[in-house]
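Input structure tokens:
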């Protein structure tokens, strides 16, 4: 399959920062994350390892494509199209719908673009603001599930309890992101 054609330059006259600046660095970071994963290919049939191997040769062209998408504010529809695969859960009857876990396989180039966008959003929110809530653990660098659990433990034991105060806490998971919701009661 031939690589997608380059998108012509957009005719924008914005005074905002240059969107394409840093796309190469963003792309290298996204490709480096792709190297660590062994995922099934999406509808285009190209596994992540193929993109990793081709990134050096296709890098400048891919950077141009992603920059044009960012400048235009477009996410190509083809990159959002997935292939549904049903994975059977062990120990369940084959004729039961609950015996299968649906997984949607997406094109790796779309995942690369998502990572570029996510990294830029996180950097913007942390640097320019408004920053994310202190109690949010998902979509945050250097925050983990363990950090969220330790925060809940700290709020439900120790000083808050010793002072006669209390706390109401909850941990939720949304789209593979963990968030802590806490309300200290005095």
């Amino acid at each position: 399959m031939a690589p997608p054609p380059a998108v012509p330059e957009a005719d924008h006259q914005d005074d905002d920062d240059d969107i394409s600046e840093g796309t190469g660095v963003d792309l290298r970071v996204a490709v480096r994350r792709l190297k660590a994963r062994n995922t099934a290919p999406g509808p285009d049939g190209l596994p992540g390892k193929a993109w990793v191997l081709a990134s050096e040769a296709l890098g400048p062209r891919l950077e141009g494509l992603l920059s044009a998408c960012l400048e235009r504010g477009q996410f190509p529809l083809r990159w959002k199209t997935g292939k549904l695969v049903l994975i059977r859960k062990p120990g369940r009857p084959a004729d039961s719908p609950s015996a299968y876990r649906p997984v949607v396989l997406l094109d790796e180039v779309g995942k690369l673009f998502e990572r570029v966008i996510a990294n830029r959003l996180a950097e913007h929110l942390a640097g320019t603001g408004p920053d994310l809530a202190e109690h949010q653990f998902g979509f945050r660098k250097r925050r983990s599930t363990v950090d969220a659990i330790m925060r809940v433990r700290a709020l439900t034991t120790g000083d808050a309890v010793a002072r006669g105060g209390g706390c109401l806490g909850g941990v939720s998971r949304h789209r593979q992101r963990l968030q802590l919701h806490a309300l200290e009661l005095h």
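The beta strands are 82-88, 100-106, 166-174, 177-185. The chain is about 40% helix and 15% strand.
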